[in-house]
C-alpha cells in the first residue's frame, strides 16, 4: 500500500510539473518567476507530513508572491491550500497571503 501511495504522489508531482512547464510558455515575462516546480523540495513535507527542509522553506519564501496565483488555479489550488501546505508554511515561518 505504501508503494501505491508513493507512486500516486510521484504521479501528481509529475502532472504538476508538466502543467507548470506548459503554463510557463504562456505566461507573461513578469510571471516567469512563478514556477510551481520550484516547490519540489516541499513535496515530501506536504504529501507525507515530513518536516520541511531548509531548501523547502527557502523555495517557499521565494514563491510567496505566486501562492495566490497557484491557489486560484483549478489544478493547483487544492495542493496549495490544503492543511499540510499550511502546516509547512507555518513551520517555515512564511506568511501565506490571503487570496
Task: Give a brief outline of the structure.
With 99 residues, the protein is mostly helical.
Describe, in plain words, how this protein is organized in 3D.
The protein is mostly helical. The protein is built from 6 helices and no strands. It is globular, with a radius of gyration of 13 Å. One of its GO terms (biological process) is lipid transport. This is Bifunctional inhibitor/plant lipid transfer protein/seed storage helical domain-containing protein. Residues 34-99 form the Bifunctional inhibitor/plant lipid transfer protein/seed storage helical domain. InterPro entries: Bifun_inhib/LTP/seed_sf, Bifunc_inhib/LTP/seed_store, nsLTP2.
Amino acid at each position: 500500500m505504501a508503494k501505491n501511495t508513493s507512486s500516486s504522489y510521484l504521479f501528481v508531482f509529475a502532472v504538476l510539473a508538466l502543467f507548470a512547464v506548459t503554463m510557463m510558455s504562456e505566461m507573461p515575462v513578469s510571471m516567469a518567476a512563478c514556477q510551481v516546480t520550484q516547490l519540489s523540495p516541499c513535496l515530501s513535507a506536504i504529501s507525507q507530513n515530513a518536516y520541511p527542509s531548509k531548501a523547502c522553506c527557502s523555495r517557499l519564501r521565494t514563491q510567496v508572491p505566486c501562492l495566490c496565483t497557484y491557489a486560484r488555479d483549478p489544478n493547483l489550488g487544492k495542493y496549495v491550500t490544503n492543511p499540510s501546505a499550511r502546516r509547512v508554511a507555518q513551520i517555515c515561518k512564511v506568511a501565506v497571503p490571503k487570496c
